[in-house]
Amino acid sequence: MEVDLIQIRNLKTYFYQGKGLLSKLFGQGLKIVHAVDGVSLTIKKGRTFGLVGESGCGKSTLGNTIFRLVEPLEGEILFKGHDVVKMDQKELRQFRQQAQIIFQDQFGCMNPRMTVGQIIAEPLLMRQGVKVSQEELGQEVAELLRSVNLDPDASVKFPNEFSGGQARRIGVARAIALQPTFIMADEPTSGLDISTAATILNLMQDLQDKMDITYLWVSHNLNQVKYMSDDMAVMYLGKVVEMGQTKDVFEQMAHPYTKALISAVPKVDAEGRKKTIFLEGEIPSPINPPSGCYFRTRCPYVFQRCEQEEPPLVDLGGEHYCACHLQSN
Amino acid sequence: MSEPLLEVSNLTLDYNLGDRKMRALDRINFTLEKGEVLGVAGESGCGKSTLGLAILRLLPRVAEIRRGAVLFDGTNLLELSEEQMEQEIRGQKITMIFQNPQNALNPVFRIESQMTDILRVQDRYQNPRSRKRRWDFKQQAIERLKLTGIADPEARISNYPFEFSGGMKQRVMIGMALSSGTSLLLADEATTALDVTIEAQINRLITELAAEYGTSILYVTHNLGVLSEMADRIMIMYAGRIFEVGKTEAVFGSPRHPYSAALLESLPSRQDRGKRLLAIPGFVPPLDRLPSGCSFHPRCAFAQEVCHQAVPPLIEVDKGHWSACLLDQKRGRQKWKWI
């Protein structure tokens, strides 16, 4: 039985540049960055949802908006049926016990003056109505460290004494401390060596099986998303251009951007070199996105209609969605 | 067979840190043909970046080259004076592209002055009585920007680095590095910081320009996928030693060293959803406390008694395919299946 854990409807997050006094006096007026521009998607319980796209496409902003680390302009984020956007501080605190983040910068998200034990114990102390003794707390921390394959003795050490892969595992331990149902992992293996990255991927799959966690897997590494996720969405300039089950997206990719993105991923293949679709140019600025289809400036199949109309996200069957005029014809 | 452009033999290098001595390169032997792309791969700390810096002699003061030779076009670079290196080799015959173009460009100078500076210095070395003017260098720089595919180079050349995106900055670096006089390009993780679509563009640019000028490339990266598409031959390094060298198809198709096989099995792209990935147990050893014998033996699933004792030499196990594994050398081709 598949249950929807998170439903996002028409979510928009804009940032404003030039709001300050100096810009008002001397600047060229207000600039609006369309970071997330009308995204709707559904994350199913117990599954992994992969979110891919180039840097600047809004995938991290979308993730941060789900946790209300960034306030959305409009739209709904339903978590188990409750709208996160309308939650007050108390409800938000309860929501954040069930939903956790593993950040990209594993050292930046840990206080260098706290021991690892203190870092992992911090969320445990935030639980409301639960009183624990120091001893019990120590046991819980040791248990968490063991579950991410670290030595419990690590709890008295400081973050700088750990390697990148170990620090990432401490981040995982902290994220699972409150037994969340939902974890967002933002580029969880960036900067790690091949073999170390593999240990993190294995660990996170084990935890998912054991604790029934739903992941939102934000990454620009398509190989990894293909390996890890059940469902996925491809974002371009703040919009979802293709979405569906991972195997459908990879096997029957419909959007020209998805095709180019997947073909550009270098693969280790003894058979020799494959054909890469080269996109010309770079991702346009989200301040002044192009009219019509946002991808038309780089699309090899562009035609007149792309300039005038924005393509809607249409179902190609089997919950495989694509926003391209070529598909809706 | 054509003449090798670069021939590194027995190169051994130490970092002397107080009382600790780290052997960063240990008896490195390889050749690079003219026009060839040699990919160097390995985990962090395996010495792949040190190798590039050693060839250009851009090493920090604590580094000491113990022995060996770096023959470039018949000259031993290790015997040249600092002036000769500066005037004839660096930035002219051998150039380098670094991982982070942001750090390689000075943020307070325009692209124009940074590019023309190099051209002017090179021009003066080549012809001390040159009468070229600023205008000539600017035209030359615009020409190079155009080659690297930057739109509207006449206008963009007066921009500052922060006005360029990461991919464009890397294009500028390539424009500075590659010219008709360059015969060897060292690329150290040149596309690691870029998005996949931009990475594909930049790698295509490097390969095309190199092919046009007949430049050889030593491409250092930990991204095996990129190497599989770009490199003619692959060299796998571990803890300062070469473990395997051979044609790309051979090394990735049927690796002769358990470590190469392990790296390939750790890649998510090669594994189906739900199957476990290989995680090589243990860690890359610190260079001042290398294990005895084969430095990989504590982590190797196939290690035997003999691996603890003898350091395996790099031996040609198949035509053009070299491997440093005692078991492979003794018993012939093995299937290194970790999982």
SSE diagram, text form:
The complex is a heterodimer of chains A (329) and B (339).
Chain A: E1 4-17, H1 21-26, E2 31-44, E3 48-52, H2 59-66, E4 74-79, E5 82-83, H3 89-98, E6 99-102, H4 116-125, H5 134-147, H6 164-176, E7 182-186, H7 194-211, E8 214-218, H8 222-228, E9 231-236, E10 239-245, H9 246-251, H10 256-264, H11 304-308, E11 314-315, E12 321-322, H12 325-328
Parallel strand pairs in A: 3-8, 3-9, 6-7, 7-8
Antiparallel strand pairs in A: 1-2, 1-4, 4-5, 9-10, 10-12, 11-12
Chain B: E1 4-17, E2 20-33, E3 37-41, H1 48-56, E4 63-72, E5 75-76, H2 82-89, E6 94-97, H3 101-104, H4 111-126, H5 134-147, H6 153-156, H7 166-177, E7 184-188, H8 196-213, E8 216-220, H9 224-230, E9 233-238, E10 241-247, H10 248-253, H11 258-265, H12 305-309, E11 315-318, E12 321-323, H13 326-331
Helix pairs in contact in B: 4-5, 5-7, 7-8
Task: Please describe what this structure looks like.
The complex is a heterodimer of chains A (329) and B (339). With 329 residues, chain A is of the alpha/beta class. Helices cover 33% and strands 22% of the residues of chain A. Chain A has helices spanning 21-26, 59-66, 89-98, 116-125, 134-147, 164-176, 194-211, 222-228, 246-251, 256-264, 304-308, 325-328, and strands spanning 4-17, 31-44, 48-52, 74-79, 82-83, 99-102, 182-186, 214-218, 231-236, 239-245, 314-315, 321-322. In chain A, strand 9 (231-236) and strand 10 (239-245) form a beta hairpin. In chain A, helix 4 (116-125) packs across helix 5. Chain A is globular and about 70 Å long. With 339 residues, chain B is an alpha/beta fold. Chain B has 13 helices and twelve strands. In chain B, the strands form two sheets. Chain B has an eight-stranded mixed β-sheet, sandwiched between helices. In chain B, strand 7 (184-188), helix 8 (196-213) and strand 8 (216-220) form a beta-alpha-beta unit. The radius of gyration of chain B is 21 Å and the shape is globular. Chain B starts with a strand and ends in an 8-residue tail after the last helix. The model of chain B has no long low-confidence stretch (mean pLDDT 90). The interface between A and B is large, with 41 and 45 residues.
